[in-house]
Amino acid sequence: MPAGKRLHKIVEVLAKRCEADGKKSELTELRDPFVLGAWLILGQHAKRNGQARAYEALRRAKGTSPGMLLDLAADKLALICQMAGPYEDARAKDLYAYADSIEEKCGQDFGRVFKKPLAEARKFLETDLRKPHAFADFLLLYGGGFPVFPVETRVARVVTRLGLAKAKSEKELDDKTYRALQKALESQGPRSAEWLTRAHGLLYQHGTDTCHATAPACERCPLAGECLYVKKHPPPKPAGAGVYSHAGRDVAVQAARSSRSSRPV
Questions:
Q1: Neighbours of 124 (CB within 10 A)
Q2: Does residue 257 fall inside a structural domain?
Q3: Residues 255, 241 contacting (CB under 8 angstroms)
Q4: Is residue 235 assigned to a domain?
Q5: Where does the chain show beta strands of DSSP type E?
Q6: What is the pLDDT of residues 20-43, one digit of tens each?
Q7: Half-sphere exposure of residue 121: CA atoms within 13 angstroms, side-chain side
Q8: pTM of the model
Q9: Of 74, 42, 46, whose CA–CA distance to 57 is shortest?
């Protein structure tokens, strides 16, 4: 199947899964550029679901603008960052630095950066704010509506495992590999912000919910049949009644307990 058609098929499969589960992409409501950056920082080395919990706490604390975040007490921000997972001190430091840099260079009007041409906006984010490619492109797509495909860690993991693009490592992307992955993905669909937002959001959500870096939930993945990772690391054979031993141990334990409880005393 041509690469472009395959990406479309994968996006539709993921869309149907989200609809069946009654879920929306975590990124659906995030459009403010500053908030998007804070969201990304909270997600660094975050526990599963930790990013969403920490962001909700930050929102409730009214830390969703550069000035308001800088006004948050250090101990309060540390507690918020702790909700996301380990390295809370580094995460809090990054958030303060991010907010301080934006307030210094843009005041409270960070949005004006995204009214510039794509090349200028990207240069500001990567050079003036010293943010990596994926961070900058994430803000450009969701915050500015530019037709670019961010390839941060979760998306890189999903697309390399599915064979949509090639990379030596799904964890660390050098500049050349990042741009090659991005070019490959952007060439497989319409160059419209609407399409790229939908495709990226679903791939990102899949990387969050199912295609984890360690212990991915392959047994409930709708794409397992065409995944290179599954072919190299097939799930253990069913331990009984069609239950994967690593994913269904709770079910197996419960079945064993029921069996014991039904024995004559």
A1: 17
A2: no
A3: yes
A4: no
A5: 238-240, 243-244
A6: 888 776 666 678 999 999 999 999
A7: 23
A8: 0.83
A9: 42
